[in-house]
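Tip: read the tokens left to right.
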């Protein structure tokens, strides 16, 4: 019986692969010092990250949600890609095969490592969208607006400081409307064009690497199982088994900053 951690068998398949899709999640950035979404790192103040990542939370308390995203923007600006991001970028740079990164992450670290062909499924920490005119803009300002300066610390505030008034939160330079982070929250549809592009890559790839995702958030959670269903090898890199592991050809357990460079090294 074949073993899911058979590295020599993986390497044979990897060497021959002509179109590799990398599907990444928060775990690929964990060794860069960015907390994952779930698990012990996934708290900000007393909130679970998933409780703030909804439009309902934003509508109720835009100041609180902006503080949460401001904190994460400022944190990411101090972080660097790690060996897992770099080895994926180097694979694309070699130019001997097509490499597409489909990431659920909003931190931009794949691009910082040099990956060019990146599909951001859930948007970006460094883009905003106007609630009034819909305009999407890149924004790497630090802080994003004066009122957020010094706000967003992850420690519980007792008593909580006053909310930032809406007119002092990030506003659109065109129409003055309230801006929101250009990310996909729970209950929101993914961008159709982004989803279509991801679908094409997944249909055409001959190897899929699933790196650092818990594989519980849809629609991304069904991507790799769909690839596996059409008989294409899928290799998962994670600290622990996930609900999808049993559907994959390979499962390499451990920190992906170590396992991924080892797997992608061509001898
Ligand atoms: C390491 C490591 C190391 C650690 N090395 N590994 C079908 C069935 C059931 C539910 C649904 C369904 N279709 C839709 C839903 C609802 C919902 C959903 O999926 N819910 C589930 C939780 C049940 N999906 C949606 O709402 C999506 N919208 C949608 O489908 O629209 C249509 C629709 C509308 C209305 C109703 C129904 C359908 C949108 C999902 C958007 C997700 N957005 C977020 C927030 C983005 C912005 C932000 O970051 O603030 O995206 S949620 C959050 O989860 C974030 C992540 O990208 C995403 C995935 O998390 P990820 O990356 O897997 O991180 P973790 O933390 O979960 O896992 C880390 C992993 O790394 C772990 O496994 C660790 O072991 C591992 N790890 N260190 C290797 N060093
Ligand atoms: Zn506007």
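Filled-in amino acids:
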């Amino acid at each position: 019986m074949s073993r899911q951690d058979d590295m020599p068998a993986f390497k044979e398949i990897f060497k021959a692969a002509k179109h590799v899709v990398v599907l990444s999640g928060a775990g690929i950035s964990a060794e860069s010092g960015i907390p994952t979404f779930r698990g012990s790192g996934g708290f900000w103040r007393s909130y679970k990250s998933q409780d703030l990542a909804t439009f309902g939370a934003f509508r109720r308390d835009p100041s609180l949600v902006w503080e949460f995203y401001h904190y994460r923007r400022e944190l990411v600006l101090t972080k660097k890609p790690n060996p897992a991001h770099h080895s994926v970028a180097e694979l694309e740079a070699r130019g001997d095969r097509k490499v597409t990164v489909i990431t659920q992450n909003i931190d931009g670290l794949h691009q910082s490592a040099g990956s060019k062909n990146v599909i951001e499924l859930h948007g970006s920490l460094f883009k905003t969208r106007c609630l009034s005119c819909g305009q999407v803009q890149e924004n790497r300002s630090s802080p994003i607006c004066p009122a957020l300066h010094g706000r967003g610390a992850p420690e519980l505030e007792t008593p909580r400081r006053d909310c930032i008034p809406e007119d002092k939160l990030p506003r659109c330079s065109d129409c003055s409307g309230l801006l929101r982070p250009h990310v996909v929250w729970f209950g929101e549809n993914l961008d159709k064009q982004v989803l279509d592009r991801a679908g094409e890559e997944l249909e055409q790839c001959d190897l899929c690497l699933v790196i650092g995702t818990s594989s519980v958030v849809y629609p991304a959670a069904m991507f790799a199982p769909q690839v596996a269903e059409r008989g294409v090898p899928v290799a998962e890199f994670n600290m622990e088994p996930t609900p999808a592991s049993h559907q994959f050809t390979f499962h390499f357990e451990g920190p992906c900053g170590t396992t991924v460079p080892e797997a992608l090294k061509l001898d």
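The pocket of BJW (ligand 1) is lined by residues 25-27, 30-31, 36-39, 42, 50, 53, 104, 106, 122, 183-189, 212-214, 216-219, 237-240, 242, 255-256 (CB under 6 Å). The longest helix spans residues 62-77.
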